[in-house]
Amino acid sequence: MLIDAPSLYFRAYFGIPESVAKAEDGTPVNAVRGFLDMLATLIRTRRPDRMVCAMDHDWRPDWRVALLPSYKAHRLAPEGGEVVPDTLTPQVPMILDVLAAVGITVVGAAGYEADDVLGTLSVTQEAPVEVVSGDRDLFQLIDDARGVRLLYVGRGVAKLDDCDDTAVRSRYGVPADRYADFAALRGDPSDGLPGVPGVGEKTAARLVDRYGDLDGILAALDDPGSGFAPGLRAKLNASRDYLAVAPKVVRVALDVPLPELPTTLPTAPVAPDRLLELAERWNLAGSCRRLVDALAAQG
């Protein structure tokens, strides 16, 4: 099980009010509690025997920005870095401390997003693999032949969607391995991807279905007999420069240099005294107990 840690802890932060989750000194711990409870639920219901949590070591890599300067530009703080709520930032080290005490592997890579780490692990780790995220871009990692699924938590872990290629085709009208081309055409304001103006989901899916991928679409644009409606041809031609780079931005890297990782999910915390100390300090006893109980049930 590959966990998109930022996706989960952002959802936890916005899903649980700070007022009901604080340490004794008043420090908010809502993201920590929510994240740990999500992990406990996933372990209890999916019963993985291996787990890795992926982190963003670079939320907006230079190589993506060089291709598309608008990439995540709206989330850039004036002083640099990502706009993150002030009370979430200090909770991330707490999450990492708890994961270390439990013995769950965490990994990131300089110059890459968590998505890229997840993508690389999805093709290098022994199958079956379940990727857990609320990021639609990761639909592209689904591979029925290899046994890679996406547990999409856009509606929360309790209502996760267990997605294979059929689910992606049903939802978007394209196969999972063409999702990146579809997303580039449609655009995604949350990532600063403008898409092709005037091309929505249905048109994007129809284009991918007919021409296979963006290379096929661009090649067809140069063929007067390819059957494009004049208006659509004009829209696509006007976006040629964008379409030449967008797929490289949207596609998840599958070749991130990563060290050998211990992936076995422990059945008990590797540092129980440290975990107890953290639970007491940050008022996390309930969440830590639920996580420990979920691990023990795996044994």
UniProtKB/TrEMBL annotation:
Cited SUPFAM superfamilies: 5' to 3' exonuclease, C-terminal subdomain, PIN domain-like
CDD domains for this protein: H3TH_53EXO (cd09898), PIN_53EXO (cd09859)
Pfam families for this protein: 5_3_exonuc, 5_3_exonuc_N
Residue ranges of every copy of the 5'-3' exonuclease domain listed in the record: 1-267
SMART domains assigned to the protein according to its UniProt record, in alphabetical order: 53EXOc, HhH2
Gene3D superfamilies for this protein: 5' to 3' exonuclease, C-terminal subdomain, 5'-nuclease
PANTHER family, A to Z: 5'-3' EXONUCLEASE FAMILY PROTEIN (PTHR42646:SF2), FLAP ENDONUCLEASE XNI (PTHR42646)
Biological role: 5'-3' exonuclease acting preferentially on double-stranded DNA.
Protein name: 5'-3' exonuclease
